[in-house]
Records
---
Amino acid sequence: MSNVLELSNIWKRIGKKMIIKNVAFTVEKGQIVGLLGPNGAGKTTLIRVIVALMQLDQGNIMINGVSLSKEYKDAIAQVGAIIENPEFYNYMTGYDNLMQYVRMARKKITKAELDEVIKAVHLENNIDQKVKTYSLGMRQRLGVAQALLHKPALLVLDEPMNGLDPKGMREFRDMMLTLRDQGISVLVSSHQLSDIEQIADHLVIIQKGEVTHRVSMAEIQKGTDNVVELVTTDNTAAEKLLTASGFTNLRIDGEKLFVTTATDTRVELAALLVNHGIGLLQLNQKVNSLEEVFLEWTEEGGL
């Protein structure tokens, strides 16, 4: 797949402090990449450098094969972004706000293209309402619509889910997945690890200005131990039975019995317990969450 965004040897100093140190990674076409890191890691600074709100000190940023530093207008024309909270004219409708942007755009945007973007962000039922009546989630979707009007190859989002309620978060996740399926690449920085876990194809973890991990979500899930969480009518008897049957990595924690194995043994465990008269109340495959992996990987142990 072709790289829509390619960062090479990126350095950025603010005052006497080096904030970004030798950062390099890529975002492929139709890929969602989550940019994660503890507070103060340099995520927002890096995003501001990528969208040219700050000038890098060293390195190169390529957007669809175009150098941001050498061919700024051509490169940045392929980027849509929301940095912090999008701002609108509250007394105007969502549609009129977008029309203001259409009139300022360098390229002609037709009504059909405008309607297509409105539909893509699921605002067709609210676009004629004044923005002052919009929920935070609707304002975020309107911001994404504005960022998509000129058909960018890359969408860059900094903490887009801050303050959203559960319904707003779900709608935002669904929208990101729809855009990915349409071939748009997304680089998103967020503290909402559970939401990133549900949409990201790859992760870039940055700490103290340096990239410490570049990994796919598939790799994280593949590296998860096979841990089965059981609740039975008699955990003590179940532990004795499973130990006698060759299961050696067992532990009881409260009302739950945990069994760790090299392979998926859920069917075997269930059959063994039921056949020996031990009632099985609950059986779950326990997988490491992104939060657990993140806390393990980051030196600070938190966000």
---
Amino acid sequence: MHKTIEKNLARVSRLVDEDVQLSEQGFPLFNWLELSPIDTCNRSCVFCPKTDPSKAPNQPHVMPPMLYQKLADELKAINYQGTVMLAGYGEPLLSKHIVDMVSVFSAVCNTEITTNGDPLNKRKIQQLLDAGVGKIVVSMYDGPEQIDHYKHLFSQANAPLDSYILRDRWYGESEEYGLKLTNRAGVLSFGEKVEKLHHHPCYYPDYMMMVDWNGDVMLCTQDWNRRIKSGNLSFNSLVEVWQSKLLKRYRSHLHAGKRDLPPCNQCNATGTLHGKKQALLWDDYYADKQINIKIVESE
């Protein structure tokens, strides 16, 4: 595994696994909320579903201010202690609302952006910093020369060293492009060298929510077919969706190591890198509700 992957996994672990926030009812709240600000990307990477328009077409849809303001208000109401990650199914910096989104969410919680870096310039970096962004995570796909380019760019913008992360993503298929490569729940053939994990737990639904531009809540960040939707945040609240019967069913199956439900039955993501603590807390909560779920130790 590349050192940058290990470093990033350790960083996310600190954000996700160290402190778990409980709801008033006693169940663990999500502490990683990923939002998709826009459904368009300016790149077409071979390891991304966006490379195939029949699977993930570019569409000029953006998350409207009314929706993300509603989400921020709900997060404030529950005193949210986690992270909002602006990334999703497109290049977030292409959204005309991105600076406002950062400003709205950073007033409530830690707010980060993952970007391919192409739309970045001195002015944009300064705008994001002024808006309160916690971290700008840049995935570099072209080559090592990008390191000096982005270091110079962030220096010009007087960005603190701890305000950005540069991730090397320019490797070939044999090195998995410097990514933790998966088949995106069966959408891609890449990652097929890792067999589908039919009998392995997964904790994605225990700690994170993936929200599309229109408020649809996906099962997890791996479901690029957008098959399983547990609610829509234009009509439902974050907490309502988070404790929905649908997610309870998936947690029940995944805690027992059963990947029999779609899209889990096509997925080869490990799913146990984060969230074990939350899974155990869900186990306790459901046990109190007379629902038995067994947590299976990951290998």
---
Amino acid sequence: MKLYSDLPVYKSTYDLLLGIFEFTKSFSKEYKYTVGESLKKETIDLLILIYRVNSRHDKGKVLEEAKERIEVIRLLIRLMKDLHQISIKNFVNINSKVEDVSKQLTGWHKSTQ
């Protein structure tokens, strides 16, 4: 079994988390401590789920939960773009990271079925 920290999906999710910490700094006060904190928590929880998936024999249920998390993250990022808290450039950049993680989770899920 690979160490969870060596998994490409873990590395991609960690990069996503760093990006989220970076761009939430510029959120207005109204959103920084609500949506910004939710984004951070959801992404940290996703990292924990990736660890759990890697350490389990039956991966399906935990992978489903991880896929749900990335969709919540995608939704919150889009909300922040629509509320003009994220520039289009940052939105495209962070969204490509979200898409990368999402594709890896989907591929991992398909390979376990």
